Every structure is written in structure tokens, then in C-alpha cells.
């Protein structure tokens, strides 16, 4: 019985690794689409959103099946609880990447204004955060999880400065207002991606230590 249970847990971990790699790939492609105005990649990210939904459902069903059939306790229950919490944030990251890609597609055929440096820096840091939180989970690396949480302050600070960079661009050419608004919304999506990576990192910390935001849970 325990061997079957261990196999189910291993399969669950494999599903989570697969979803983690998918969001890494999605974020990398979205980053290239945004920074290089690569509309082909933007379409690919936009059209592949269903993959994340299917992976989330697969992991959710497997987790619930284990809970109902095996009634795990202690460390095993913590692992399954972590999976159910993490997949929500993973799927939301993919949704946000899709939103950014959809906005990038609106730029196609337009004369583009210069992207504010802070938005570009936000995109780079979000890629790093996603990669680190996925690796933190795969390798049970508490230090990487803490690095992700620390990076979020930098992303938040960059977001607060975006409006200062956008305003002068609009003043130079009022016809660029719509693009400027889109860039602010992209920055907001990056800020939200940062928040979701922090959530994942905090659940990784919980899976390792049993503590979530300094509170002992399991």
C-alpha cells in the first residue's frame, strides 16, 4: 500500500515539475515577445494558455484522489497541500503572460514608442523570479525561495517608478497615449507575476519547514 502511495506522490511531483517547466518556458517566450516585439512568439504564448489550465486540472485531480483514497498525514499531507496551493499561482502566472502577449499583439503595425527602462527591468527580474521559484520547488531549496521573496521589493519599486517614465513619452506625442496606457498595464502584469512567484516561494518554504509566513501550520 505504501509503495503505491509513494508512486502517487512521485507522479504528483512529476506533474508539478512539468507545470513548473511550462511556466518557465512561457515566461521566457513572453519576455522575448515583449522586449523584441516578436509577434510570432506573442501569438504562441497567447494561444497556448489552455495547456496551463489542463495541467492545473490534472494536478488538482491527482491531489484530491490521493487525499480521498490514502488519507495522508503529517509530511505527506503538507506536500499535497503545497501542490494544491502552488498550481493556482502557477496558472495565474500563465494567465498574466497571456495578457501581456495579447497587449504586445496590439502593437503590431504601429510605430512604437520607446519602452521605459523600468518596465524592461521588471520583465527581466520577473523571469529570474519565476526561474528561481521553480528551481526552489524542484530542489527543495529554501535559500532560493527566500531570494525570490526578497526580489519582489525590487519589482514593486520599479513599478512605482513606471509612471514617471511614461509621462514624458506621452507629452512628446499625444498620439501615443494608448500605447503608454498599454505599457503601464504590462508593468502592472509584471508586478502581479512577481506577487505570484512570492506566493509559490512561500509555499515551497512551507513544504520544507511546515511554516507559512512565520506561522507553523503542519
Counting DSSP H or I runs of 4 or more residues, the number of helices is 7
- Spatial separation of the terminal alpha carbons: 24 Å
Mean pLDDT across the residues is 89
Q: Give the domain tally.
A: 1
What are its keywords?
7 helices; mainly alpha; 2 strands; Methane Monooxygenase Hydroxylase, Chain G, domain 1; two-stranded antiparallel sheet
Produce the secondary structure layout:
Elements: H1 2-35, H2 39-47, H3 49-70, H4 74-106, H5 117-138, H6 142-172, H7 177-209, E1 211-212, E2 215-216
Antiparallel strand pairs: 1-2
Helix pairs in contact: 1-2, 1-3, 1-4, 1-5, 2-4, 3-4, 4-7, 5-6, 5-7, 6-7
What's a concise summary of this model?
The chain has helices at 2-35, 39-47, 49-70, 74-106, 117-138, 142-172, 177-209; strands spanning 211-212, 215-216. It is mostly helical and 218 residues long.
